[in-house]
């Protein structure tokens, strides 16, 4: 049964750490709103608006989209009513200025950040996951060719849509994304540790086991 919770959390960790998978499990368990900047930006690209081309030029090469664009997207989304019951920020913040903008925005709306889950993950694990990831063109569900395959190859179990490989999951871009993560996002680990918000979890664990650990952690800390 889904329960209503008012926690605001950030999922921090390299691409391929399993943040999206855990976010989906957390949504199901606690009824929080999942805000994935990667998903929102991909949607903006597929809608083909005026900024679509510019966004995809960053994303397809594994570079970060400029802070101002991403922050505006997140803050607008967090201002909507369905964000009042608590949010899971997945893929945001990714830089120190983004983290500071998030703090100001939460402050201004009388909200707080309750926990930052840091998914500590080895590069080899992240690379194996990203290179085997397949995504449904229609409903966005993620699969993995060996770890979590669809029943019928290339076809989504849920909606029958076609599965594809994200442009930025191709090997040359994956390496760049991990480097970009090291250079920008690692700084945030200290930022949140200093604030006493950081909780480290093992991103290398299978999804079910990791979820059980996170659930136990939240219960211990009275977060849910
Ligand atoms: P993700 O799905 O989280 O791996 O994000 C895919 C791509 O979207 C990233 O490689 C970036 O190009 C862009 N992106 C997502 N979130 C952010 C962010 N917080 N700041 C800058 N770029 C982002």
Question: What would your notes on this structure say?
Answer:
- The chain has 224 residues and is an alpha/beta fold.
- The protein has a domain at 9-121 and 178-220: Rossmann fold, CATH 3.40.50.300.
- The protein contains eight helices and eight strands, in the order E-H-E-H-H-H-E-H-E-H-E-E-E-H-E-H.
- It has helices at residues 19-30, 37-47, 52-59, 67-78, 96-108, 123-132, 171-194, 207-220; strands at residues 9-12, 33-36, 87-90, 115-120, 133-136, 142-144, 163-164, 198-202.
- Strands 2-3-1-4-8 form a five-stranded parallel sheet, sandwiched between helices.
- Helix 4 (67-78) packs parallel to helix 5 (96-108) and helix 6 crosses helix 7 (171-194).
- It binds adenosine monophosphate.
Could you name the key traits of this structure?
single chain, 224 residues, alpha/beta, Rossmann fold, five-stranded parallel sheet, three-stranded antiparallel sheet, 8 helices, 46% helix, globular, binds adenosine monophosphate
Q: What's a concise summary of this model?
A:
The protein has helices at residues 19-30, 37-47, 52-59, 67-78, 96-108, 123-132, 171-194, 207-220; strands at residues 9-12, 33-36, 87-90, 115-120, 133-136, 142-144, 163-164, 198-202.
List the helices and strands and how they pair.
Blueprint: E1 9-12, H1 19-30, E2 33-36, H2 37-47, H3 52-59, H4 67-78, E3 87-90, H5 96-108, E4 115-120, H6 123-132, E5 133-136, E6 142-144, E7 163-164, H7 171-194, E8 198-202, H8 207-220
Parallel strand pairs: 1-3, 1-4, 2-3, 4-8
Antiparallel strand pairs: 5-6, 5-7
Adenosine monophosphate is lined by residues 15, 37-38, 41, 58-59, 62-65, 70, 91-94, 98, 168, 177.
């Amino acid at each position: 049964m889904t329960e209503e919770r008012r926690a605001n959390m950030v999922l921090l960790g390299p691409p391929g750490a399993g943040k999206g998978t855990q976010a989906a499990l957390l949504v199901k368990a606690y009824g929080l709103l999942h805000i994935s900047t990667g998903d929102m930006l991909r949607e903006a690209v597929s809608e083909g608006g005026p900024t679509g081309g510019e966004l995809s030029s960053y994303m397809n090469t594994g570079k970060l989209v400029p802070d101002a664009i991403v922050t505006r997207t997140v803050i607008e989304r967090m201002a909507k009513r369905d964000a009042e019951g608590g949010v899971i920020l997945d893929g945001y913040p990714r830089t120190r200025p983004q983290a500071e903008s998030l703090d100001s925005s939460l402050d201004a709306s009388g909200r707080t950040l309750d926990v930052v889950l840091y998914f500590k993950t080895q590069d080899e694990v992240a690379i194996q996951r990203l290179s085997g990831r397949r995504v449904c063109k229609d409903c966005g569900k993620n699969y993995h060719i060996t770890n979590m395959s669809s029943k019928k190859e290339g076809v989504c179990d849920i909606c029958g849509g076609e599965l594809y490989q994200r442009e930025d999951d191709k090997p040359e871009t994956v390496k760049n994304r991990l480097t970009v993560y090291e250079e920008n996002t690692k700084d945030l680990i200290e930022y949140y540790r200093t604030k006493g918000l950081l909780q480290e979890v093992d991103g290398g664990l299978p999804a079910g086991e990791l979820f059980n650990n996170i659930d136990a952690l939240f219960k211990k800390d009275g977060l849910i």
